[in-house]
Amino acid sequence: MRGVAIIGCGMTRFGKLERGLVDLLVEASLAAITDAGASERGFDAIYVGNMCSGELNGVTGVASVLADRIGLLPAAADRIENGPASGGSAVKAGFMAVASGIHDLVLVAGGEKMTDTPTGRLADVISTLLHPYEYACGATLPSLGALLARMYMEKYGVRRESISLVAVKNHKNGSLNPYAHFQKEITLDDVLNSPVVAEPLRLYDVCPVSDGAAALVLCPAERASEFTDTPVIIKGVGHATDVQSVTERDDPTVLSALRVASEKAYEMAGVEPGDVDVAELHDAFTILEVVQSEDVGFFRKGEGARAVEEGETWLGGRIPINPSGGLKARGHPLGATGVAQIVELTWQLRGEAGRRQVEGAEVGLSVNFGGFGNSILVHILERR
Amino acid sequence: MRGVAIIGCGMTRFGKLERGLVDLLVEASLAAITDAGASERGFDAIYVGNMCSGELNGVTGVASVLADRIGLLPAAADRIENGPASGGSAVKAGFMAVASGIHDLVLVAGGEKMTDTPTGRLADVISTLLHPYEYACGATLPSLGALLARMYMEKYGVRRESISLVAVKNHKNGSLNPYAHFQKEITLDDVLNSPVVAEPLRLYDVCPVSDGAAALVLCPAERASEFTDTPVIIKGVGHATDVQSVTERDDPTVLSALRVASEKAYEMAGVEPGDVDVAELHDAFTILEVVQSEDVGFFRKGEGARAVEEGETWLGGRIPINPSGGLKARGHPLGATGVAQIVELTWQLRGEAGRRQVEGAEVGLSVNFGGFGNSILVHILERR
Question: Structure pTM?
Answer without folding.
Answer: 0.98
